[in-house]
Design goal:
heterodimer, A: mainly alpha, MetI-like fold, 2 domains, two-stranded antiparallel sheet, 14 helices, 66% helix, 4% strand, B: mainly alpha, 11 helices, transport (chain B), ABC transporter permease (chain B), membrane (chain B), transmembrane helix (chain B), transmembrane (chain B)
């Protein structure tokens, strides 16, 4: 986006300053001064609160009465030993992987379709992206009915003569069901329903990113790739995909961050499910803290979740900001 | 030539199938919303509304209108305040970089990505202490604070694209920090404000986590209201779907009318300079 020269100009809009001025410019003071309210607000609501939560996770505050006595790592040990949190970790791994793959593949596919100089492009783009404008809560309410085993999409399957309709989010099966720690390891089939709803919501985001990426590929390269037939496939894998790699990185980071934070959808659609087959850490944290009043354990779950997100968000942010500065 | 026409046909068939699948939920919301109480029934969920009836919609409206109003208060007040904050921050960080300004920008941005669960316990304690727990102003404050990162990002990227020469010539004309902001930046940043305002409005309207954590009825936003309706035992199915439709309409309308700007916000959120 930055044309050459702009960045340097923006760094000192006054231009080359020949007179030595040891004192700080009044503009810089204004800039710092106007940032102060936001710095204070975020300092308190983000950084101080995170610190506070981290602190609570090491206390004995596991009842309605606040008890800030030091408890060591016992809350962390407790959650990692609990059936529910172990189930969460299993579900999270499967959910994140399939959610990302689903959104990326479907998003790229739709972007390529829409990029074929089609008629009514605006209409199709809008249709594939509108779920992003709907709240995850509403999405959860709608899909809890669409994927309810006794009605919704199963009625349509019935009409096609399918006798054994899926149990969707009420399924308790776990494949392949091997014992790991205290839980049965494998992919809980109930997660498929949650995946369908969330991929429906988010694949348009991947499409929008990929569409922007495709449009940024030089026209000559694209023309070559547009030729039909077997050649097109090779050109796609040797030209288009490599060109889209930075976009894919962005999409992976954004989708991963959002998949770790899934809460509204679960709350509205399935809840934790039987044997926690559709539970995820964000929902567990909320229940543990505000229904169970186990504040210290809730804080421990929140802290684990935070660390998981920061592990890949911080390098990504530093990377993008560096690139921008060096441009 | 013939193969080409054939391929185009397949292309459109695939596009239409996918579009239809994507539209299923909205189709269901609309047909169910237009069914009279006598025509509802989960066994003919997919049937066209016959006869048409608006009892579901009107009952839903009676049920969620107060919560919709709460959401309007929240979304409008938070959007107004936080777009102004974002514009001021973005201007400072894009055009008047100083030593450490990129570090400040980094820590502002990071606030956008954290799972908010890691702030909820102290957040509720503090809101309670200052008397803002379970109030609409309290929830608006929360949205304002956590909206700052994204708004700063949108405006910073927007202002970064305004050429430095414009600022230089404005300074030669005797404009200072705020003169440049008012006479150069603001007139050029109307699209930036549209992108930012749409984004923030949609975010606040669609929020559920803060709403459910910080408020109880009757101060809840509409997202919390529909989830509560869905969870109650005695609810007619057409009323629930109509409530969900009503709760989704404002952001859907904004999206249909100003979708272009919504997409820009969406792409800006990926921190591409």
């Amino acid at each position: 986006m930055n044309q050459s020269g702009q960045t340097t100009a923006s760094e000192s809009p006054v231009g080359v300053n020949k007179i030595r001025r040891p004192r700080v410019r009044v503009e810089t003071l204004w800039a710092i001064f106007t940032l102060i309210p936001s710095i204070i607000l975020l300092g308190v609501f983000v950084y101080y609160f995170i610190f506070w939560t981290g602190y609570v996770s090491f206390t004995k505050w596991n009842s309605f009465i606040q008890d800030m006595h030091f408890n060591g790592f016992r809350n962390y040990v407790a959650i990692f030993q609990s059936f529910r949190f172990q189930s969460d970790l299993r579900n999270m791994v499967f959910f994140t992987v399939f959610f990302m793959l689903g959104c990326l593949i479907l998003g790229l596919f739709l972007a390529i379709l829409v990029d074929q100089k089609i008629k009514a492009e605006g209409f199709f783009r809008s249709v594939f992206l509108y779920p992003m404008a709907i709240s995850a809560a509403a999405t959860g309410v709608i899909w809890s009915w669409l994927l309810n085993p006794t009605t919704g999409l199963n009625l349509i399957l019935h009409a096609f003569g399918i006798k054994h309709v899926p149990q969707w989010y009420l399924s308790t099966r776990i494949l392949p069901n091997v014992h790991i720690a205290s839980i049965s390891g494998g992919f809980p089939l109930a997660m498929i329903a949650v995946l369908i709803a969330s991929i429906w919501q988010w694949s348009g985001f991947a499409m929008a990113l990929y569409l922007a990426g495709l449009r940024a590929i030089p026209e000559e390269l694209k023309e070559a790739a547009r030729i039909d037939g077997a050649k097109a496939m090779r050109l796609f894998f040797s030209i288009t995909l490599p060109q889209l790699r930075p976009i894919t990185t962005t999409a992976v980071v954004m989708l991963m961050a959002s998949s770790l934070k899934v809460f509204d959808l679960l709350y509205a659609m399935t809840g934790p499910g039987a044997n926690f087959v559709t539970d995820l850490p964000a929902l567990n944290m909320f229940d543990t803290t505000f229904q169970g009043n186990e504040f210290a354990q809730g804080a421990a779950i929140a802290t684990v979740l935070l660390i998981l997100v920061l592990i890949f968000i911080i390098p990504y942010l530093i990377g993008t900001l560096r690139k921008e500065v060096s441009k | 030539m013939r193969a080409r026409v054939f391929n185009r046909t397949i292309l459109y068939v695939v596009l239409v199938i996918f579009a239809a699948v994507f539209l299923i939920p909205v189709y269901l919301l609309i047909i169910t919303g237009l069914k009279s109480n006598s025509a509802v029934g989960l066994s003919h969920m997919w049937a066209w509304p016959n006869p048409l009836g608006f009892s579901g919609l009107s009952q839903a409206w009676q049920q969620v209108a107060p919560d919709m109003l709460n959401s309007v208060y929240l979304a409008v007040s938070a959007t107004v305040v936080v777009t102004i904050l974002g514009a001021i921050n973005g201007y400072a960080l894009a055009k008047w970089k100083f030593r450490g300004s990129n570090v400040i920008y980094f820590f502002i941005l990071l606030g956008m990505f954290i799972p908010y669960q890691s702030t909820l316990i102290p957040l509720i304690r503090i809101l309670d202490k200052v008397g803002l727990f379970d109030t609409i102003p309290g929830l608006a404050l929360v949205h304002i604070v956590y909206g700052i990162p994204m708004m700063t990002l949108i405006f910073r990227n927007f202002f970064a694209d305004i050429p430095g020469e414009l600022i230089e010539s404005a300074q030669i004309d005797g404009n200072g920090y705020w003169g440049v902001f008012r006479h150069i930046m603001l007139p050029l940043s109307i699209p930036g404000f549209v992108v930012a305002a749409i984004w923030e409005f949609t975010q606040v309207w669609n929020d559920f986590l803060f709403g459910v954590a910080v408020t109880d009825p009757p101060n809840q936003p509409v997202t919390v209201a529909i989830v509560n309706i869905a969870g109650s035992q005695h609810i007619q199915w057409n009323v629930l779907m109509s409530s969900t439709l009503l709760a989704s309409l404002p952001t859907l309308i904004v999206y249909l009318v100003l979708g272009r700007y919504f997409v820009r916000g969406l792409l800006a959120g990926s921190v591409k300079g």
